[in-house]
Design brief:
Largest sheet: 7 strands, antiparallel
Number of domains: 2
Structural class: alpha+beta
Strand content: 25-35%
Radius of gyration: 32 Å
Number of strands: 11
Length: 273
């Protein structure tokens, strides 16, 4: 055996030893990883985007394996049948869901058990001025809308669109882009159960009003809700103010009647019960 052959055999032995060392290192690493993560568990992953309160079907999810260490049975859903166990109640998304998200129990709620003639409707309300964290499920609210002057609307007016209605659910805070300013607004989906006429009024107000607000109603009752609308050109007419802008202290006792009586109700406005 010449020196070149000996060098070749030596290199082969070194390569074999290196291969065995790499193999043992990989095996050791995989063993440690399996010991740390444990076995796999099956959960459900969304295959498409889902809108708030949209019905969830089995075609929208797929099985996905995750390490058992990170699987929490109280958080994640591993069987779609769990969502349909409650008879006659469809599973719907509690908020906007994105493709690829692992399905969690907080993301799914049962559709309300509507009575004959009732409608469930969700609208997007400004998170700061419209909700402000003061109302929640089963809160009773009035809905107010403000309309700027425009076609068929000669002046700026604020209307009470619905009175003393119940909130079924409030979703998670999201964001939208203002078409006029290009800025970002924080919004919250709020769900109501209404009559068809009430749902129509609310839909109109959300579509055409410049702002939409919720006003919480006292647990003791709504009492007298007062005027249904207030418009800019009525303000000075409804206040006893002299033309020079000074106030008459002798008439201060009549401040309770300072607001003018409401004008004739618009055809598209009606009070909720």
């Amino acid at each position: 055996m010449n020196p070149r052959q000996r060098r070749g055999i030596l290199l082969m032995i070194v390569a074999a030893i290196g291969g065995v060392a790499v193999f043992l290192t990989v095996v050791s690493y995989m063993s440690a990883l399996n010991s740390e993560l444990g076995t796999s568990r099956t959960t459900l992953r969304l295959t498409q985007d889902v809108q708030p309160y949209e019905e969830l079907t089995q075609e929208m999810v797929e099985e996905y394996e995750v390490p058992a260490r990170y699987f929490d049975a109280e958080t994640f859903i591993d069987d779609f049948a769990e969502l349909t166990q409650e008879a006659d109640r469809l599973p719907v998304a509690s908020s906007a869901l994105r493709e690829g998200e692992l399905l969690q129990r907080s993301m799914v709620i049962a559709a309300p058990d509507l009575q004959e003639g009732e409608r469930e409707i969700a609208i997007m309300v400004d998170a700061e001025t419209g909700v402000a964290g003061k109302v929640g499920r089963q809160s009773r609210v009035d809905v107010y809308a403000t309309f700027n002057p425009g076609e068929g609307q000669p002046q700026a007016c604020a209307y009470r669109v619905l009175t003393d209605i119940e909130i079924l659910d409030i979703g998670d805070v999201g964001s939208t882009i203002d078409e006029n300013t290009g800025g970002t607004n924080n919004v919250v989906p709020v769900t109501f159960r209404l009559s068809p006429d009430q749902a129509l009024n609310l839909t109109y107000a959300e579509a055409f009003s410049s702002s939409l607000r919720l006003a919480a109603v006292s647990p003791q009752g709504s009492g007298d809700p007062g005027n249904q609308e207030f418009c800019s050109e009525d303000q000075l007419d409804g206040l006893d103010v002299p033309s020079d802008g000074s106030s008459d202290s002798g008439d201060s006792g009549d401040s309770g009647d300072s607001q003018k009586a409401p004008r004739t109700q618009r055809p598209d406005q009606s009070e909720g019960a």
